[in-house]
Design brief:
Layout: H1 2-15, H2 35-40, E1 44-51, H3 62-78, E2 80-87, H4 89-92, H5 97-106, E3 112-115, H6 117-125, H7 143-148, E4 150-151, E5 154-155, E6 163-170, H8 171-176, H9 185-197, H10 212-225, H11 229-238, H12 243-259, H13 265-270, H14 278-282, E7 288-292, E8 309-312, E9 323-325, E10 328-331, H15 338-348, H16 351-361, H17 379-386, E11 391-392, H18 403-414, H19 419-435
Parallel strand pairs: 1-2, 1-3, 9-11
Antiparallel strand pairs: 3-10, 4-5, 6-7, 6-8, 6-9
Helix pairs in contact: 1-18, 3-15, 3-16, 10-12, 12-19, 18-19
Length: 437
């Protein structure tokens, strides 16, 4: 069971992360050089382990171009070479990216790593990652980034972008039926009722990965925006509060959406992200879907609809609520080239590099000094984030991993489990985390 969960969890996390492609960095030694000259001119190398894209590495890829540009900046200024060591499923067969990464960190095989939220939490708690709080770039980070990447008081990873999720809505259809964009759960239920009464059978298009965002918005709207975040998380980690108490309203809301036919549970359980619900949304058969920020910029996703699209936060008791998740770059605590690795991070995560990366990819920067010029469709979501209104879908400071576990438990709900059974699973996970102390 645990093995199956790990495989699913890796797929969940990797779906939304910035991916890397292989680059050739080596060179053959000139046989004409003598030993002394070779030693003097020996390259300084920093190795980076990350996932490899499924597409042709020679294909035009904006994300790859943005990351590579920041790496080149570091290489030129430090006179080092960053070697990409990449994961491919074919090479590792049944082993997931997270499993391979943990093994490589434990055996000190690389210097830099791109980590998913669950591995950030695990390796940070075990002391396997270097504290990055001393880097100058750390001073420029948004509080949301520090919160999500801090384990036991140490900032163990820093991302190049913040991944924000929201509801993608067909504004034209809302206008046709004189509907305001939903801000609360009650608003969303009413909008779905009107759509269904006007012949739209399933108002919300969903897939098996992202429905947890609806739950997170309900569960943690107050925790992250009520002014008592740190104390509440400490209470959860000590077992004084229960995750199930936070999660229950979100699961009950999702169950109500299913019961009323506003979400097709059977289809969502088997649909892949965007592939399942995307065609109906683009064909204006479904007025609402959920996706991440970058999908609004990508023509292969939702970047070129034939209607006015808006991306808003998920309805919550505190209004539209963005849900934020992020991967992060970390340095092994016992990395062979730790000093150079930290210097590389200092450059690729500097405001200068962040600006280059953000402008190329049109994403939200982790730096509070770097703003994104987003397309009009994303302005509602961006406005909330700039107001520091958000919910974290991944938080390394919580002892029960959130993103993957919640997704898997939501899938149990889709498959017919009761809300009470889902809450019992959260209780089990919390009890397990307390026993591990």
């Amino acid at each position: 069971m645990k093995r199956g969960k790990k495989k699913k969890l890796a797929a969940i996390c990797l779906a939304a992360m910035t991916v890397l492609t292989a680059a050739s960095c080596g060179g053959k030694e000139d046989p004409g050089k003598n030993l002394i000259t070779s030693e003097k001119e020996e390259k300084r190398v920093v190795s980076l382990f990350g996932p490899m894209e499924k597409s042709d590495p020679d294909a035009d890829n904006v994300a790859r171009t943005a990351f590579d540009s920041t790496v080149v900046m570091a290489e030129e200024r430090l006179r080092v070479t960053v070697e990409y060591r990449t994961y491919t499923a074919e090479n590792y067969q049944e082993r997931t990216y997270d499993e391979v990464l943990i093994d490589r960190v434990n055996h000190h095989m690389d210097d830099l790593y791109l980590l998913n939220p669950d591995t950030i939490q695990k390796l940070g708690a075990e002391g396997k990652l270097q504290d990055l709080s001393g880097l100058a770039c750390a001073e420029n980070l948004r509080e949301v980034v520090k919160t999500a990447n801090t384990v036991n008081g140490k900032l163990v990873t820093i991302p190049q972008e913040i991944v924000a999720y929201g509801l993608f809505v067909n504004k034209d259809l809302f206008d046709r039926y004189n509907l305001e964009l939903p801000e609360t759960p009650e608003d969303l239920l009413e909008c779905c009722r009107v759509f269904q009464e006007n012949g739209i059978e399933t108002p919300i298009g969903a897939n098996r990965w992202w429905l947890e965002n609806l739950v997170f918005a309900q569960a943690y709207a107050d925790l992250y925006n009520g002014g008592n975040t740190e104390a509440e998380i400490e209470a959860l980690n000590r077992g004084e509060k229960k995750y199930s108490d936070y999660m229950r309203p979100g699961f009950e809301f999702l169950q109500e959406l299913i019961d009323r036919g506003y979400v097709d549970a059977q289809k969502a359980y088997t649909s892949e992200a965007i592939d399942g619900e995307g065609p109906d949304f683009l064909a204006q058969k479904t007025p609402i879907v959920m996706a991440y920020w970058g999908a609004a910029n990508t023509e292969t996703a939702y970047g070129a609809p034939d209607f006015e699209m808006k991306v808003i936060g998920f309805p919550s008791s505190r209004g539209p609520m963005p849900v934020v998740s992020m991967t992060g770059y970390g340095v092994g605590a016992e990395a062979e080239h730790q000093e150079d690795a930290l210097k590389v991070l200092e450059i690729i995560l500097s405001d200068e590099a962040m600006k280059l990366y953000t402008e190329t990819n049109k994403v939200i920067s982790p730096s509070k000094n770097v703003e994104v010029e987003c397309i009009p469709a994303l302005e509602p979501l961006n406005d909330r984030i700039q107001e520091n209104i958000y919910v974290l879908g991944s938080n390394a400071g919580m002892k029960v991993e959130q993103w993957g576990n919640t997704c898997l438990i939501v899938r149990e709900l889709l498959n017919g489990a009761t809300v009470d059974a889902c809450m019992a699973e959260f209780d089990r996970l919390q009890e397990e985390s307390l026993r591990e102390e």
